[in-house]
Structure formats: structure tokens, C-alpha cells
Predict the structure.
Amino acid sequence: MITLQQAMERFLSVKNASPRTLASYRNGLNAFFDTLRLGRTLSDGSHVSLDPATAETADLDEDWVATFIANLQDFSPATQNLYLAAVKGFYRFLLAERLASPHIPRIEQWIAERARKAPRRRPQFPREEIEQLIAYAESLSTIPVDTIGASLKSEAARHAAQQRARLRHLRDRALILLLADTGLRVSEACSLTLEDVNFFEGHVHVLGKGNKDDLVRVSQRALNAIRDYLNARQAAISSTPARRGRPLSAGHHTPLFVRHDRAARAASPSPLDPSSAWDIVRERAAEALGQEAARRIHPHSFRHYFVTIVLLATNNIEKARRLARHRSITTTQLYAEVDPELDQDYHEIFNKRPDRKA
């Protein structure tokens, strides 16, 4: 038996489709895997979740599709259709390869019924907890790593372990601040290269939905965090004997965010994928807020947070739409939980009336 993550790679490797379609299917299955990690509540009140990296294909039943459909309400209809096609194809692959025994007609029925359901509901998100997570992320650069690798016998091994931990702290700080201050989709953040970042102009070039090349403005704190991370990466590369003195080269093939585990190589970095970025957000949220709160936060929560902050500051939904790069203002309105002008009017009407006492 193989894991769900391994099954996904096998499914994509044998699927006859264009590179663009395969990339879209990968995004859809990664979103589906996010649902597995978040879990679902059973009829008896218990909570169940699956980690695709360790869960076997036989553990996957078709009921997860219903949960996934509910979680897709934040996405556009076109994205929903694409992601559901990817998931349905994945289930059919598992059945054909005898890796699982899903009931395909039931899955098809759920997908067909989805089109007849009520309009999308406004997504909810824990704003206060996200702000606490952002504050924790900012502090990651000051967390000491001296005790990391204390059980290792070799001083060189201890130094390497501490260096990796330091790089992870700086990377995760930069990633979380970038997501929060730009509203980038996690797949967009993971696809950034060094050449995409313009520190002088304060923006990044992103290949967004529909392969559209977008210019995204970046806050100074996020740029500073990225610069700190890249400086630390350069120092790590310079300390590698084979690479000593060679600069961290900027180009189309040098990813901005990379892995820093024992298997990763400083001289030839592996890019961070969206699934790993999701894990980073979940792990940092658990460190800052506890496991229960971490279940309510995922990378897309920062996009919701971004739109909310823009609306609070400008009370201009068109500006929020343009900064979030939504094609339709209807999508932006789903995130428009705040309206400062209406809030003030309500306060004047109901809280300042002479017949009302606090």
C-alpha cells in the first residue's frame, strides 16, 4: 500500500494532459489534501483528519468529497469545477489501480448536486488569531537556536542543525508576512524566484490565475524579512566549502523559498511546494496558538485577512479588488466583512441615541 501523497504523484505522472492542466490538477489535489488535514466532524461528534504524507490510500473514503465541496465555497465556480474534476479523476485512478474502493456514482451525485445549492456563503476567518500568528512570525528572527542539536556528538553536526533551524525561522517569518501583507495565493508565493523580487520598487512579479503576469506590491516589513532570509541563505552557502565565495544567484530557476531540512542541500536548494507551505502555517499556528486554533488557520486565511485590512483602511471595495487581483468584484464582496462607514452610521444611530444607556 502507498500513501496518498505518493498516489497523487503517480496519478499525475500517468495522466495524459498538458503541463498547464497537470499544474492545475496538482493545485486542486493540494487543496483537497488541505481538507484532509483540516479534518471533518463525524456524526458522533468526533473529529477525524488524514495526513496525506502518511495516510494510506485505503484510508480515503468518498465522504471526504462532500467536506471538500463545502470548503470550496470561497473559490470561483470555474476553480471549483477544475478542482472537483481533479479529485474525481484521482478517485477513479485509485479505484482502477485497486488502491481504494470509493463509490464513484456517489461522488458524481454530490458534484452534480453542488450546482443546485445555495449561493456561496461569505467565508469566515479568525482575524484575531491570525494577527497573533503574524506577531509570532515577526518574533521568529529573535528565537535562539543554541540548544538545537544538543544531543549530536559532532560540533559540525550541531552547527549545521542550528543553521538549518535559523534558516527555517527566517524563511517562515518571511513567508507568513508576505502572505499577510500581499494576499498572495500560497501557490503563487511558492513559485516566486529571486528574480521576481524587486526590493527597490517594492513589488514582486507573480504568475497568477490564467498564467497572468501580475505586479504585486509588498510591504517594507515583508521585504525586510525576505532580505534577512536571503542574507542568511547567502551566509550558509558561503560556509559550504564547494561554494565558498560564490553569491546566491538570482534567476528564473532560483526559488525564493526553499527547504531547510537535513536532506536539503544549501548549494542546490529544493523549492518549497504549496503542501509544505501549508504545513509551515499549521505548525507555526500551533506553536503560537495551540493545536485547536491551528485547525482554523490555513494559507488562504491570509488572503481573507489582506482584503479585510484594505477595506478597513480605505473603505473602497474597488481598491481591495485590484490589490487582491480578483477578476470580479463579486468575489471581493464575499470577503467584505467590514464597512467602516456603515459601522460609524450604526454607532451614531443606536449607541448615541439619548434613550439608550450603556
